[in-house]
Specification:
5-stranded parallel sheet, 5 helices, alpha/beta, globular
Length: 176
């Protein structure tokens, strides 16, 4: 099963890079706007994806110019927000997106679903990245037809690292 999982994860990462590479670069550019100006970058992470913000704030390689986000955070026009959510149906993520959109504050969204008209988050966001997760990666060992291993956190962390690589390059070029 480990080899199958490894193959499935590799395939997921390849799908993300093949289809979302441009959106990843655009998202890094969007977040770098805050760092070039006087703004802050905020990650609004929901559900299990709260681990992304913890990693970005407290990991060995911290995300430059990132400030902790809470629902009480006052975001201004010079700030940028990146919303991480498992589903485009998350009510808290949708509420934040509507607020940022109404206040003309550009923001990015990372979520499972593809970018389409029925995905309100993708319609509101300045940049949108799909994690390409449609369900479990592996068949359940005993329940036929059921699938397990839904890697939202792993896919989001992969996208985060891809954004960070581009972002770090952009802000280091700006400092020269």
């Amino acid at each position: 099963m480990s080899k199958i999982l490894s193959t499935q994860m590799s395939g997921l990462f390849q799908r993300i890079i093949q289809t979302e590479e441009e959106a990843i670069e655009e998202t890094a550019r969007l977040l770098a706007q805050a760092s070039v100006g006087q703004g802050k970058v905020y990650f609004a992470c929901f559900g299990e994806l709260e681990a992304i913000e913890i990693h970005a704030l407290k990991g060995i390689e911290k995300f430059a110019n990132l400030a902790a986000w809470t629902p009480d955070t006052i975001v201004t026009e010079v700030d940028r927000v990146c919303i991480f959510t498992e589903s485009c149906q998350n009510e808290d993520a949708l509420q934040l997106a509507k607020q940022l959109f109404d206040e003309f504050i550009p923001f990015a969204v990372i979520s499972s679903e593809p970018q389409e008209r029925t995905n309100k988050l993708s319609e509101l966001a300045y940049t949108y990245i799909s994690m390409k997760i449609r369900g479990g990666l592996l068949p359940h060992p005993s329940n036929l037809g059921e699938r397990i291993v839904i890697p939202h956190l792993i896919a989001a962390l992969f996208i985060y690292e891809a954004i960070k690589l581009n972002y770090d390059e952009m802000i280091s070029d700006d400092e020269l």
